[in-house]
Structure formats: structure tokens, C-alpha cells
Amino acid sequence: MTTLAVLQPGYLPWLGFFDLMHRCDIFVLYDDVQFDKHGWRNRNRIRSASGPHWLTVPVRHKGLGKPAILEVEIDPQLPWARKHGATLRQFYARAPYAAHYLPELEEMLNQPWRMLIDLDLALIQIMCRWLGLHRPIFRASELKVSGDRNERLLNLCHHFSADCYMSGNAAQVYLDESLFARHGVAVVWQNYCHPVYSQVHGPFIPFLSTLDLLLNAGPESLAILTA
Questions:
Q1: pLDDT (tens digit per residue) in 24-34
Q2: Would you list the domain boundaries of the chain?
């Protein structure tokens, strides 16, 4: 059985993102759907001593109508990368694996990024490497597979000869399982159960960036994430 998963890219994604990737054989980034300006494409949460803290990459979207994710540019007027690096160093100064990951992350953040999708993809790839997670990643925009929402997902399965489509539970409101079944593709729901792990600040807070897990658990992160 070959399992395909399709998900929008995110900035320093949460644990469920990488769990879905771990559980599939082929992973497609849905980069040509509409950018959601209050979503997770350009922001995520980390842990401070007082609770969750947002890291947000400023982007240009005013006056652009409804741009696709791959069309969104980073606003170069604000020193976001330096600020994110400094914030991470401050909040995770006592984290066991801060010295192991943060220098490489800061170097990457401070590259001259123009497009949000390129930044998100680069961070996803480096986090996969840190996790020891190896899956082929494709961009939907480069596959030239068409159709309405359900048809396109089904056609992506056919494109990769996948006979199983795995999705997060939020898609239950629109995914037509009967359509997939008629074409020989099984639909499996992720049903992710968030683990509890040791954080440098307590008590435990869930639904943060996977970076929080990596900085606290290091090489044990993938086992914790997928338990």
C-alpha cells in the first residue's frame, strides 16, 4: 500500500505536521491554494516562561486580492529574522539542545529570503533532517494536477499510484470519502494524539512548533512525536 498525504506548508510546523509526514510514503505541500493570512503559513508558537509566544514572519498581502501561498512575499522592511533568533536564544537558553540546533537555524533564518514558500520549505527540510525523518516532498504547484478540491486530491493519489490517502481530521468537513472509495483509494484519518514531554518551562503547553520539542528532547524527538 502506498500512502499519500497533502498539507499546506507552515512556518516551523507543529508536531502533527511531521507525524502526518511520518505516516505517509509521499508528502505533497499544497502550495498553490489560497494564503490564509491568519493561519500558520507565516507564524507559529514557541514557549516562553510566561506561556505561548508567537513568532510571525511579516508578509506582503495587502492589495494583492487572494494570493496563493506560493505568491506571498516576505516584507523585507522589518528585521524579523534577527528578532526571531534573539527571542529563541532568550526563551530556550536553558533548553538541553539549544546549542545543537539554534546556530544552524539562525544562519538559515538570516538568509535573504524573498518568497515565504521558499523559507517554509527550507525550514521543513532542516527540521526533517534534525528529526531523522526522510520522506519525498513534492510541491503541488509543480505537479500540474488539476480538478476541484476533492477531485484534485484524488488525482494526486492517481499521479503517484497511491491507494491510500491520509488526512488530518479537519478535512472531514469537505472530503468526499465515497469518491475516493469508488476509485479504489482508501481514506485514513490521522487522529493525532499530542504527546506530553519535558519542556524547559513548566507546566506543559501543547500545540507549539516542533522546534520546542527538538530543543527540549533532541534525538528523541521523533520517537516522542510519533508515539
A1: 999 999 999 99
A2: 3-225
